[in-house]
């Protein structure tokens, strides 16, 4: 194993340890629920970046999150489905809808794709608002059941009704999801996605079915958005379809900002962005009306001074202190990563 | 029946007729040139054979299969490869990775094989790597295999485009201006490589090129287009003598005076 891999493993171990210790150190229900939201935001931001691997931006991520949340909540409320099943079904619902919509949507690129995604997500929210018989309409759903008792191997029956327990459950689900997404990104599939992002014309010329690969990508990303939404619904235990709610268009904006501020060219970028900015949001909660302004100012500052995001800061500081010859050797690599 | 048959191939761009009722036959293992003044419709013809443009009318039959309406990637499966006029490379990838993308058709693509790296997936990756290195050795880019594609000079980028096309193991390769912008030595190198492809692997080539010296030296048959229609067809010797071709390239005496 190279030194770099060992460093990476230590880094992830430190993050995992911090995530596990955090609720115990902070020791308050309030902070535990904040941590749960942060972990969910990480999953949402990372899955949003997955779409960026094919070179597209989605402003409709929140819509698929909404689909997952409603599907999972309704299954557990109306059909009494067990937590694990309804969570998975919520994610699957979002993934399948994305699969269906992907075929028409992925025929267009860039801003046209962005418009379609934002329209789709608003449609989902409006559907939730107006299909009163099923979704409870304007008032949303109240009393979404907590996971309750779950049988965990080696641990036996554990009650996930408590805040700390639910946090650990979310953390486990998100960590496993991140592992899967990372695995996919580094596989032949992820390689093909990146090739399509570089030039879809040449990709098609070597036999890559560009449309199919883009749709698979969109569907996988939305599956995890749905999972994030479902986790959120069971955490808050109430969901609302109103424009100012978690499923409003502002959430989609924030997710995009998390990704860009963190750094969209690296897997760790959106993780870092989601954690830092979610904390900023939490600390600025007393000045709620200024929140978008504060987050916006941070985003502008980061884009200006660290165009590759917060994750590039350690490296950037490193290059300030290193010799000139090293920086020139690194320059072309950076240029290309940025181009993507 | 020919290897590649083009029948009454026509392309309209709005009111403009880019290609008009073109008939063309290419035998297997032939190197065929497609020449003509700028805007004659040469690239449009190549795009319709390769699948990046769909014809308005007519048909393209490749190796006994009608491919007229097939998308690009399906034609790649059948054995049609492209070297585009512009250097369309996977810029952020290394030279070796560029060729590995070209081996897409030969790789496992299942979701499960992406998630779980079995021994057979690893073995397959290793074989593809070796094959990719062989392809790079053929075009003479071995020593640059770990450079980023974007950092290569133009001539080597052309060679890499060729290597990507070769990675698909084509039966027919469509080359759009393969030697444009190259120096004399690089041109000679590229031409001998195209000949080697035909002689060693039996790959059929259709070449668009403005470098007439290169075309005349390389091609066995040449088709000349002007304003979207075929004005001449024959061996290089016949083409240079043909008064219609000379007129298309140089204009008539009245035009000069």
Q: Give the CA-CA distance, first to last residue of chain B.
A: 47 Å
Approximate helicity band of chain A: over 70%
Gross morphology of chain A: globular
Would you identify the CATH architecture of the largest domain in chain B?
A: 3-Layer(aba) Sandwich
Oligomerization status of the protein chains: heterodimer
Give the number of domains of chain A: 2
Q: What is the CATH first-level class name of the largest domain in chain B? A: Alpha Beta
Low-confidence stretches of chain A: 325-340
In terms of structural class, how would the helical and strand content of chain A be classed? mainly alpha
* Total helical segments of chain B: 11
First-residue to last-residue Cα separation of chain A: 29 Å
Number of strands of chain B: 10
SSE arrangement:
The complex is a heterodimer of chains A (340) and B (257).
Chain A: H1 3-26, H2 29-52, H3 61-78, H4 83-105, H5 110-130, H6 132-135, E1 141-142, E2 149-152, E3 156-159, H7 163-185, H8 188-198, H9 200-205, H10 210-236, E4 238-239, H11 249-262, H12 268-283, H13 291-305, H14 313-321, H15 324-339
Helix pairs in contact in A: 1-7, 2-7, 2-10, 2-11, 2-12, 3-4, 3-5, 3-10, 4-10, 7-10, 8-10, 11-12, 11-13
Chain B: E1 4-13, E2 16-26, E3 31-35, H1 42-50, E4 57-62, E5 65-66, H2 72-78, E6 80-83, H3 95-102, H4 111-115, H5 119-139, H6 154-167, E7 172-176, H7 184-201, E8 204-208, H8 212-218, E9 221-226, E10 229-234, H9 236-241, H10 243-250, H11 253-256
Parallel strand pairs in B: 3-8, 3-9, 6-7, 7-8
Antiparallel strand pairs in B: 1-2, 1-4, 4-5, 9-10
